[in-house]
Amino acid sequence: MKHITVSTYQKDKYYPRVVRAVGKLLARADVVAPSEILIEMGNLSKKNYEAWRKGQVPYAVELTTATTGLLRIVKCRPWGTSPTPYTA
After folding, report:
1. CA distances (Å), 30 to each of 8, 16, 65, in order?
2. Is the pLDDT of residue 83 over 50?
3. 3-state secondary structure the chain
4. Where residue 75 falls among pLDDT bands split at 50, 70, 90?
């Protein structure tokens, strides 16, 4: 498995898709959550996200079609390293 870090995320094949999704989300709002990125990319349905939010499923990752690499890029927070939600 490829190790994705803050210094290597731009080389990953999923990076361009993440950037496009974040760009679309930031055009509509000043804050972007990792779950919104996965929904925008089509890797997590709104229905499944709501089921997780309501506690019907313990882990949202069980409901996503995202690969480990994609999840690591989203987790790297390439547009900011703050533990709070992404902001513009």
Report:
1. 26, 20, 26
2. no
3. CCCCCCCCHHHCCCHHHHHHHHHHHHHHCCEECHHHHHHHHCCCCHHHHHHHHCCCCCCHHHHCCCCHHHHHHHHHCCCCCCCCCEEC
4. low
Q: Which residues contact 73 (CB under 8 A, 6 or more apart)?
A: 4, 9, 12, 14, 15, 18
- For 54, the token pair is 């309501």
pLDDT at 82 (0 to 100)? 47
Averaged pLDDT for residues 19-47: 90
Half-sphere exposure of 69 (CA within 13 A, CB side): 13
Q: How many CB atoms lie within 10 A of CB 70?
A: 22
d(CA 65, CA 29): 25
Amino acid at 85: P
